[in-house]
Amino acid sequence: MSCYRGPRFKKIRRLGALPGLTSKRPRAGSDLRNQSRSGKRSQYRIRLEEKQKLRFHYGLTERQLLNYVHIARKAKWAIGRVLLQLLEMHLDNILFRLGMASTILGARQLVNHRHILVNGRIVDIPSYCCKP
């Protein structure tokens, strides 16, 4: 599967803090969001930025995100809550939350290099869905 391989720091400056993307922090004076656009943000722009934050934070493509939204709709609960539960149950995200890696991308690398055991078995799929 593919993930975003472009400049990550540009996305952080554009969308705000994304702790799972990189551990770097922008300088206080280099906030491009305040310089480039002023005025009222439309509802469309707010929703688009939130969707892009989800995509870049969890390392998903547009198609993968749509598939998760369809799964969440089938559950017939609040789509946002179910969607976040599905994404938070990924093995790479769990490793990031436990502090075993500084970023989600680092956690993905740990899983891909077969350094992680789940119930005594080696798992090399970062999107492996863990149960609580």
Average pLDDT taken over every residue: 83
The CATH architecture of the largest domain comes to Orthogonal Bundle
Under CATH, the topology of the largest domain is which?
Ribosomal Protein S4 Delta 41, Chain A, domain 1
Beta-strand segment tally? 2
Q: Reading side by side through the largest sheet, how are the strands ordered?
A: 1-2
The poorly predicted ranges are: none
Strand residue content: under 5%
CATH superfamily of the largest domain: Ribosomal protein S4/S9, N-terminal domain
Family: Belongs to the universal ribosomal protein uS4 family.
InterPro entries: Ribosomal_uS4 (IPR022801), Ribosomal_uS4_N (IPR001912), S4_RNA-bd (IPR002942), S4_RNA-bd_sf (IPR036986)
GO molecular function, one term: structural constituent of ribosome
Subcellular location: Plastid
What does this structure look like?
By secondary structure, this protein is mainly α. It has helices at residues 8-15, 32-36, 43-58, 62-75, 79-88, 91-98, 104-112, and strands at residues 117-118, 121-122. It folds into 2 domains: 1-83, Ribosomal Protein S4 Delta 41, Chain A, domain 1 (Orthogonal Bundle), CATH 1.10.1050.10; 89-132, Structural Genomics Hypothetical 15.5 Kd Protein In mrcA-pckA Intergenic Region, Chain A. The chain is built from 7 helices and 2 strands. The chain has a two-stranded antiparallel ribbon. The protein is globular and about 55 Å long.
